Amino acid sequence: MVQVAGLDPQPAYLTKKPVNSLSSQRHGGGIHEEYSMNALRQSVRGSLPYFAAIVGIVLIWQAVVVVTQPSPMLLPSPALVTSTLAELFTSGELFVHAGFSLGRVLAAWLLAVAIAIPLGLAQGSSPIVERFLDPVVELFRPISPLAWIPLAILWFGIGESGKVFVIFIATFFPILLNTVSGVKSVDPVLIRAGQVLGCRTQLKLFRHVILPAAMPSIMVGLRISFGTGWAAIIAAELVAANKGLGFLIADGMEILRSDRVLAGMIIIGVLGVLIDTAFRLFGKKMRREEYQ
Amino acid sequence: MSTDQAPKALGIKVDNVSKLYYPAAQEPVEALRPIRLDINPGAFVAIIGPSGCGKSTLLNLMAGFEKPTAGSLYAGSQRIEGPDPDRGMVFQQYALFPWLTVRENVAFGLKLAGVREGERHDRADEYLALVGLKDFANAMPSALSGGMKQRAALARAFCTDSSIILMDEPFGALDALTRGFLQQELLRIWQEHRKTVVLVTHSVQEALFLANRVIVMTHRPGRIKRDEAIELSYPRDPMTEAFRQLEYSILSDLQEELHAAHGVVSAQPTQ
Fold this sequence. Notes:
The structure holds 2 protein chains of 2 kinds.
Chain A: H1 32-68, H2 78-91, H3 93-125, H4 127-140, H5 149-156, H6 160-184, H7 188-196, H8 202-239, H9 245-254, H10 258-287
Chain B: E1 12-21, E2 29-39, E3 44-48, H1 55-63, E4 70-75, E5 78-79, E6 87-90, H2 102-106, H3 108-112, H4 117-130, H5 146-159, E7 164-168, H6 176-193, E8 196-201, H7 204-210, E9 213-217, E10 224-229, H8 241-267
Parallel strand pairs in B: 3-8, 3-9, 6-7, 7-8
Antiparallel strand pairs in B: 1-2, 1-4, 4-5, 9-10
């Protein structure tokens, strides 16, 4: 059953259709076709501004190249960068570098998730933990993760662990802070409701009320942290790596191939947007509905 | 209803309970001055009083959310030490869990009591039918109107099988039409299930329409000013002479308290 948006004969909740076309429905089926149609339509509509932005940037870029006639070593034309991109793609070089960068971020991010979420839950729900942890967090938070790169190299050399360490620091704080604020902003009346409905222990209250109530905020932390991790890995790879997208652009500079630098930057940007979009879609799917 | 347990209800005993609050760097506030109150099992008691009189405090003490400064409270013979699923609560803010469907919300208490999913959903559906929300079992709370949310919250409180249900101005945020409708539904459910209900309200009409005992509280510090058994037969008609006389007399008691409270307030400079 495919419906034209805006012509629903009945309110969404009567037709067992998800209220938000991107959210899923636990009970009842037969909505997948409609769901994917709506999702497709929405994603096409949502990405239109992106295409406009890309066209605009390429036009300006081309204009600058035509007017100033720079050396291709400094500013290559869009066409040259496109062919370099295609070359990186067909040779498989792109996948190696992107794979290394993504793998490092993923490993460090998972480590940060495993530590920051429990810590954030503890800090958000216990004033004592909060009192000890908050000053530490506040002291470390203003230090850019990039400032840890020299220490990381001294401690771990230029191997994988140093980069994982830097990304761990970059991803840790957004996860922690969002988890803490998620737990702290749980509506007290929901906690009371949980208590009178049978959450006799703090643990049950946690599992059945506090955690699900804090989930939207935790999801935001997970998404933002992956973004900061993605930004930081490039910097870490600029300094010390022989694989990865950061290395790709640093190497492009050393061999005076700014087309490779720009191609690498484009891949970083596109992957960043894709990852963020994936998180958003997943987050919406998990929420099943919209509530702020 | 196929939930055929023997109707269970517990009384509440409030034994010389007082409550003081200690705001930081300020004089302590006396919310309740020693109160004695015996509520019979299965009674429908309405507590009414000027705002800030401590009626919500009294309800929170019964729920176990707060501890008395002195005295103690009992549910049946059990001393009240903290919140317990045997004392359910309906909140003015509905307090539905936004991440659960309406059915899951209503079945939440049964889930924590360890009832199997199939059975608890069946029972939730019964109570949803009772409040006229059968077709909304799979909806998320955000898709419901205020009145529907409160009906779901009523179903949740009664489905959990508590012996006492506490209500903190449950219909205060609703429009008059919805409020009247929900009052009738609440009365119907209570007559069917005979749980002990304590309702805090600021509407004299609501109290007289529903309760078989009305307690009027004084302004702060809260004490019991009047304790009136309401012997009018159900369903009650606010247009009858007896109803109106009671309403008038309780209103004038409240008026008295309001004036007294105002006298105190206006003697101090306003912030």
